[in-house]
Amino acid sequence: MNDKSQNTVSHKAMMPYEKFLLKGPESLSDEELLAILIRTGTKDEDSVSLGRRVLSLSKGSECGILGLRSVSISELMEIKGIGQVKAVKIKCVTELSRRLVQASRRETVSFREPASVAAYYMEQLRHECTEQVLLLLTDNKCRLIHEMVLSKGTVDTSLLSPREVFLQALKYQAVHILLLHNHPSGDASPSRQDIEITKRLDELGTLLQLSLLDHIIIGDNCYVSFRESGLI
Fold first, then answer.
1. Helix, strand or coil for residue 33?
2. Cα–Cα dist 232/33, whole Å
3. For residue range 187-217, what is the model confidence (pLDDT) as tens digits?
4. Sign of CA dihedral 29, 49, 88, 132
């Protein structure tokens, strides 16, 4: 390859970066944004083509850039030209994007309104492959003072300790508690075990003067609120 050809290839590889500097990030396509992260291509493909191949890995109902949340590092590394470092960078950007969106919405969440809480945590929980239980602790004005992952279970069960719930609530001097967990099946309908443990927590909370605001189950773009359903 002569110098002129090399310069042409180099110019093409730098195009997304130069376009960013001239017109800003909003002017770039999804694959061009990925190309800047990827930086270099292979002898057969430039970085933009690799970005396009990364986007093609998306599966299920979400395609393109949204689907990157469900693509694993090992799947990214199956693409020739995407090594571990590049794969980790891509996954870090998708996680950072999720956190930015979540942070921007936090001030608008009303923890007294199940629909508001479910909408805020929907994207965080509905993609999980195993059950996770989140414990949210609020003050007397229902402002969030602490959030934690209380347990992680198998594909269809999770471990929930009432003792741990109330130890955390007392530790952070909470006035109200709120539980969320996901159903990986996508069906948000509560199980018998969900109902039993929630009623138990409600009873214990009353004794300790720590009110259970709600228990919300997240499915695939759907939710069930125990409070709305009259289960507590």
1. helix
2. 48
3. 999 999 899 999 999 999 999 999 999 999 9
4. positive
**pTM score > 0.90 for this model?**
no
Q: Which two tokens stand for residue 168?
A: 């955390």
Residue 169 vs residues 103, 114, 115, 231: alpha-carbon distances, Å? 23, 20, 23, 22
Which residues on neighbouring strands pair with residue 147, listed in sequence order?
A: 136
Q: Which residue has the tokens 């609020």?
A: 138
Helix (H) or strand (E) holding 136: strand 132-138
In this structure, what token pair is assigned to residue 42?
A: 């292979």
Degrees to nearest 5, angle at CA 117 with 115 and 121: 115
Distance of CA 6 to the CA centre of its chain: 41
Question: How many CB atoms are closer than 10 A to CB 229?
Answer: 15
CA distance 63 to 22: 29
Residue with tokens 């969320």: 180
pLDDT in tens, 126-138: 777 888 999 999 9
Mean pLDDT is lowest, of 19-33, 106-120, 178-192, 205-219, for: 106-120
What DSSP character marks residue 37? H
Residue 86 backbone phi and psi in degrees, to 5: -65, -40
**φ and ψ at residue 39, rounded to 5 degrees:** 70, -60
CB count, 10 Å around CB of 180? 25
